[in-house]
TrEMBL record:
It comes from Sphingomonas endophytica. InterPro entries: HotDog_dom_sf, Thioestr_dom. One of its GO terms (molecular function) is thiolester hydrolase activity. The lineage of its organism: Bacteria, Pseudomonadati, Pseudomonadota, Alphaproteobacteria, Sphingomonadales. This is Thioesterase. Residues 53-127 form the Thioesterase domain. Pfam families: 4HBT.
Length: 150
């Protein structure tokens, strides 16, 4: 039996994430776990390193932004949200291995949403944190092929 209601929306968001062309460069998997919560499972390898041998900031930003974004979009069933601002705090270098970005909605329900996210290593160490604002766009979720495929 196919999922219904919120579960169907969450699976459709996961499908939309998987269909995004950027994820060919950042192999990762989205999991929408509850209203206003998401996780992105990602593995850092040497392709993501800067010249000094640790993950480049683009990896941190991508995973934190996506986790916070999808936490918010889990609460919106009709429109695609857009990131309008994102602040990062990078606290430790990130080496090779699995990492999880955990996103959590903080506030907002109508036009602007606020969420935070953190990057956590397999050992449970937080290596980065971010906070973002997201705004409803004019883009209908149902019009996006990845979302519709779900």
């Amino acid at each position: 039996m196919p999922p219904e209601g919120a579960a169907a929306h969450y699976r459709a968001l996961e499908s939309l994430y998987a269909a995004a062309p950027i994820n060919r460069f950042f192999e990762s998997r989205l999991e929408v776990t509850a209203p206003g919560e998401s996780r992105i499972h990602f593995s850092v390898d040497r392709r993501h390193f800067h010249a000094a041998g640790a993950a480049h900031g683009t990896s941190y930003f991508k995973m934190l932004d996506d986790a916070a974004f999808y936490a918010c979009n889990s609460l919106v069933t009709d429109r695609f949200l857009l990131t309008t601002q994102f602040s990062l705090l990078l606290t430790r270098p990130l080496g090779e291995g699995p990492v999880v970005a955990e996103g959590r909605w903080i506030s907002g329900q109508r036009r602007v949403f606020v969420a935070e996210a953190r990057l956590v290593t397999v050992d449970g160490d937080e290596v980065a944190r971010g906070t973002g604002t997201f705004m409803r766009s004019r883009i209908a979720l149902a019009s996006l092929p990845g979302y519709a495929a779900a």
